[in-house]
Design goal:
alpha/beta, binds zinc ion, Alkaline Phosphatase, subunit A, 10-stranded mixed sheet
């Protein structure tokens, strides 16, 4: 890939730049020189107006600008830097916009409404998949009239191969918004459909029917329980949930799909593209990256997906979701949000390495942000999951002495406004004081960040997220856009 093909500047340009700045006192300062380099790179960017053969959209669920900031520092510190200066793979992309994520009926959005916006080009209500906001949530009878076409459905008709990868259940909101039409995101199998539901099938059935018809070629994630009857046990001895007797995994194998459920069967998958691929690595969601055993990483799944789908001469559309960044934040556990965020960044890097920006549009975004917040004033290099350390007035790196709040106790850099880490406790009649906190507590992988408002599950927030893009028509991302605009850029890039 030649993202930064403009890095080697013509000598004339470099000398012109030097001349223009020759009388500026600070021109030999490292920050000044680095910014000059960035300026020249941006001046030299050429817009790519070719048709995109391939479109890849990578969504880290719940990874708004704040969460992305935390992952940047986390990864930078893992790489031995202070952290703040680190550049994540998508931050090297030449084009970016801010995205307004609200649903038509919700200031704070959910992943079904946001996924539908990104993949279908229209905003809708919270909790619904692949339908417009004429539908009332839960009303099966309105689905047929309210259904909207997804980018995957449109591009499949144009001969592109379609892939869906998620670390969440494949029937969960974000991946399901690529292929399903459902009055409720919770209709993952037949047991969740309301009595007398006519007008739609459950989400797992919709996926397998799309694979049978050739509209989805590659589907990889978690969620086996929604594909198996309740009297059938899976490879990890967990029971299915279906009560209609349908074994959808056998059905997929019946029409020729390859099936994988652990690392060994994943490793054996044939990437020739001749047979559809169905992989379900867990009964529910895949494991957090921090806890991962016997199942592939997101980057490994992306590599397998791109290798398989690239066999299609008409190109492909690939949706990739890091679904568990969101779940870790719901748990109030910053460590797992960061480690799953870092695994997402490795997947972005892999997608960049395996493609060419001349013919592949890569979009990196989030569906929404969380109620995450950052305290001050912490010195450079303060461990992002740890206590806020003081600023060294004489040097660069933090003082290694925790800052104290007005209650005399230290506090972490990162917290959530609400969540199970609330300092207010029910057993004290919803009063409380902040517990004392050590650095060892704070950097423990299982530490739940302090929060104010008590909620068993920390909430999303309605803040903007970013969308980063490279490749054909990536420059159509600029300014502040509505989330449903993302679909329109993908469609234009792939079909203009
Ligand atoms: Zn969520």
């Amino acid at each position: 890939m030649k993202l930064k093909q403009n890095i080697l500047l013509p000598l004339v340009l470099v000398s012109a730049m030097t001349q223009a700045n020759e009388n500026i006192t600070q021109q030999s300062n490292q920050w000044y020189k680095a910014a000059q380099q960035t300026l020249q790179e941006n001046i030299a960017i050429k817009l790519n107006t070719k048709r995109a053969k391939n479109v890849i959209i990578l969504v880290a669920d719940g990874n708004g600008v704040g969460t992305n900031y935390a992952t940047r520092i986390w990864q930078g510190q893992k790489n031995g830097l202070l952290g703040e200066e680190y550049v994540l793979p998508q931050e090297k992309f030449p084009h970016i916009a801010l995205v307004k994520t609200y649903n038509t009926n919700a200031q704070t959005p959910d992943s079904a409404g946001t996924g539908t916006a990104m993949h279908s080009g229209v905003k809708t209500k919270a909790g619904m998949l692949g339908v417009d906001d004429s539908v009332v949530r839960g009303d099966c009878s309105a689905v047929a009239a309210g259904s909207v076409d997804s980018i995957a459905e449109i591009l499949a008709k144009k001969g592109k191969a379609i892939g869906i990868i998620s670390t969440a259940r494949l029937t969960h909101a974000t991946p399901a918004s690529v292929y399903a039409h459902s009055a409720d995101r919770n209709f993952e199998d037949n047991t969740k459909l309301p009595e007398g539901c006519v007008g739609q099938k459950d989400i797992a059935v919709q996926l397998i029917e799309k694979m049978a018809s050739g509209e989805v070629d590659f589907a990889m994630g978690g969620g086996r329980r929604h594909f198996l009857p309740k009297d059938v046990k899976d490879g990890e001895n967990k029971s299915g949930r279906r009560t209609d007797g349908k074994n959808l995994i056998e059905k997929a194998q019946g029409f020729g799909a390859q099936y994988a459920w652990d690392q060994a069967s994943f490793d054996k998958l044939d990437t020739s593209g001749d047979k559809p691929v169905l992989a379900l690595f867990e009964s529910s969601h895949m494991k957090y990256e921090h806890d991962r055993t016997n199942e592939p990483s997101l980057a490994q799944m992306v590599e397998k997906g791109i290798k398989t789908l690239s066999n299609n001469k008409q190109g492909y559309f690939l949706h990739v979701e890091a679904g568990r960044v969101d779940h870790a934040s719901h748990d109030g556990n910053a460590h797992r949000a960061m480690t799953d965020g870092a695994a997402f960044m490795a997947a972005v890097k892999k997608a960049v390495e395996l493609t060419n920006s001349e013919d592949t549009l890569i979009i990196v975004t989030a569906d929404h942000e969380h109620a995450i917040a950052f305290n001050g004033y912490c010195g450079r290099g303060t461990p992002i999951t740890g206590l806020c350390m003081g600023i060294d007035t004489k040097g660069t790196k933090h003082t290694n002495t925790p800052e104290k709040a007005d209650d005399g106790k230290p506090y972490t850099v990162l917290g959530y406004l609400n969540g199970s880490g609330s300092v207010l406790k029910e057993d004290q009649n919803w009063t409380g004081t902040r517990p004392a906190l050590t650095q060892a507590d704070a950097i423990d992988p299982d530490y739940i960040q302090q929060a104010l408002i008590p909620k068993s599950s920390e909430t999303h927030s309605g803040e903007d997220v970013a969308v980063y893009a490279s490749g054909p028509w990536a420059h159509l991302f600029n300014g502040t856009v509505e989330q449903n605009y993302i679909f329109h850029v993908m469609l234009h890039a792939a079909t203009n």
